[in-house]
Amino acid sequence: LFGVAQAQRTVAHLTLPPVALVGLGGLGRREMAPYSDLDLALISPQPDDPRLASLVQSLLYPLWDAGLTVGHAVRSPAQFAQLVRTDATVRTAALDMRLLGGAPPLYLELSRQLQAARRSSACRRQAIEAAQRWAQQGSQGFVFELQPDIKQGPGGLRELHHLWWLCRSLFDIKSWADLRRLGLVSAYDLQLLRDGHAAILAVRLALHAVCNKRQDQLRFELQDEVATFLGMGSGAGGRLPGDHLLNLFYVHATQVRGAAGRILESTVEQVGRPARGRRKQVDGFALLHGRLTLPSEAEAGAPLELATVVQLLRAAQRHRLGVHAKTRERLCGAAGRLMEQARAPLPAPLAVVATELLSFVADQGAALLLLFELDLLPALLPDFAHVRGLTQRDLYHVHTVDAHLVACARCILQLLAAAPADPADGEAPPHRAAAVAVAAQVQRPQVLALAALLHDLGKGRGRDH
Fold first, then answer.
1. pTM of the model
2. Closest by alpha carbon to 257, among 339, 162, 367?
3. 78, 255, 324, 416: most buried, per Cβ within 10 A?
């Protein structure tokens, strides 16, 4: 359209000032779904020239007539650069920029000015502060929603975009592989990002195609049709195609979220430049940047023992410390082997420590959530493997069975700790104060927390649980 509009003016002997058409956002990074918005910018050293108005109309009217949502602006390189310095939304959109047509020299000048603007001390400081806030707050919400939002929801495409924008701002990367060259991501996490992005984007594309409109929430009534569109069939035990689709999303969304968190932590360590002092020891585990790590022989690749993992997580829980990103990655990769070790009953002393890990009131379920995110709960509770990612199609639940059990146990632990409601969960219900008062009378809080964690383990076995 842009080329045709320019050609028409050439034929009519109408001269135009130098102009370039630039795609931003998803269009710029070549990540468009059938009904995505188009974000366009016309760049000219004379943005107010009236001759550009007819060019804009010739470009936009056909797009609007086709039912597309188009955002557009006409700016000079200097105007665009000034907005990048002062407007975070424009700065983010400009991180994914691509020349679609027009004058290449003008696009190169725009790129030069925008890069200089992004490298200003104010923009870099804001990017570092954003990374530190994100790392401190952690991920919000469960990936395991029964009707997930593929783009904006937990573990969706937007989490990947946020990480991409942050790393583009701080390190000027051109691809995910650049993070590998910078030492910010392992080969394992890099592959998780690539595979997760491809799988989740495929689900979004299928959603748009099936609905013939913009649709990013994978609702119950759409799940089987989208799964069939992607070539998935029914499975053993009467599992619907939509169940397989949800599990595909859960696996990749969980892996993307975990990898993004580890990369974010490495990024904050690098830009924050913490002091490198002598490693301290906490219960036999080393502290690195304020987080616990595995013993050196385990980090070097020696097989992990379940007892070591339990003791590490219990030490982190007891001392209110995080677990370092490289150690979390190691635990993720070892989850399958640790489950094999769990086939034998835990020794009594280790079982006591594991029970404390799962039901420690003071940490309000933080360790329980970490175990769930690392897929390590089946290593301590083998029956948990049966309900992993198990869907429940009813009006009463919003999460899969395993996520529901973890959420329920965390809620009980928060009540037992008389902790204020988590703002991420929304406004506290009016009966919360009464529930906290009742919880204060519980004689055996660990038993109640474990009961909440186990109460639905019988589901999915063909009989009433």
1. 0.85
2. 162
3. 324
